[in-house]
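Assemble and predict.
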Amino acid sequence: MNPAWVMALSAAQHVLHQALKLDPNAADAFTALNGRSIRVQLNQPQLSITLEFEGGQPWLNWAQGPADVTLSGDLSALIQVARSLAAGNSALVMEGLNVEGSVGVLKALADAAASLSIDLEDELSKQLGDPMAGALVAGLKAVYHNLKRQSGSLKAQADEFIRHEQPWLLTRDAFDDFTDRARRLRHRIERLERKL
Amino acid sequence: MTQETTHFGYKQVAVSEKAKQVGKVFDSVAQSYDVMNDLMSMGIHRVWKRVAIEYLAPRTGHKILDLAGGTGDLSLLIRPRIGDSGQLVIGDINHSMLAVGRDRLIDKGACDVPVMRMDAQKLPFADASLDRIIIGFGLRNVTDKDAALREMRRVLKPGGRALVLEFSTPVFEPLKKIYDVYSFKLLPKIGKWVAKDEDSYRYLAESIRMHPDQASLQGMMENAGFDEVRYTNMTGGIVAMHIGFVR
């Protein structure tokens, strides 16, 4: 694997561990998964990462050992599933992803993730004091909700635009038909030229 | 009676003599080893070592051997990653290098890292007792590299990995020429000016050229019993990292 990927993976692991430190019960939550591993194989971009659990902590591994369960698919499908899990939906519904191996491990991961309670405000309070932490978290929440509202509005506008423009948009069938006719016409011209 | 020989740089010496000769080189360079590493590599060796540690992936609770660990710079990067439940050991055949490493670790507050004199060809560990082994810029000085690799494989647990960080063969032809000029003309001069030891640094350059290239070392590791071996070149192949996995 490319050294840049390995370094990026290490940085991601550091961030993950720092985030989990914010929940004192995180180690207990992941204890049930000790010794288990989940591989994520992305087709686009081509990337394979294994999430291993040891000592109540998840570890990101670039190496290809045996894994209890393998998820394979596109990055977009993975993000969709992660969002769905974060929204509290079932870990057994994974549209767009192929799952091979023990689904029970995924269920255990979803349960562990659901039981996490990462209190950013508490950690910031220790570092910056209550008033500053409160203001900072309130600001971050406002920005998050604003972005969420705007992205929802953008999506609705894009849907509306596509619905409105649909009659004028070229469909795949129409485009294929057009290229087919153009090709036939070119062949007829070539034959005519040869006849002449 | 014919005596079995091996290379010591470009010279041929008796097998029994090589360890002594290498010992003399490292006795001579031990005190200035880290300064010289910085000078010779223009500090890039620090990047190589940091990247190597990420490939090694030490984790909390791991038992790790830093073989040919000498002045302890790799150990200083590993120690914070294994927590209090882990165990790191530095092993080196050379007493002078270990003395520098031990002092350095104590100075940096890593007082719980045992420093042990050991021969890479006969590791003093039980079978399947370690999670990780790293040997940084040490394998080329070992007399019987195959025996050392077999020993590394022997002491690793299933799921373990050994990482060999070593100078190798540049893959880019123009770089090879620049590297040759640098190694044989400039490096011994730097050694003479800074460490007052031209011969030792000439040996270092020669030993790098005598070391197996990337594919050969990969084959040697596979022959030693590693289930999977991969390598990654750094700085155009001047340095390569070989990682052997035990399944």
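The interface with chain B takes residues 1-3, 6-7, 9-10, 54-55, 57, 59, 61-66 of chain A (CB under 8 Å).
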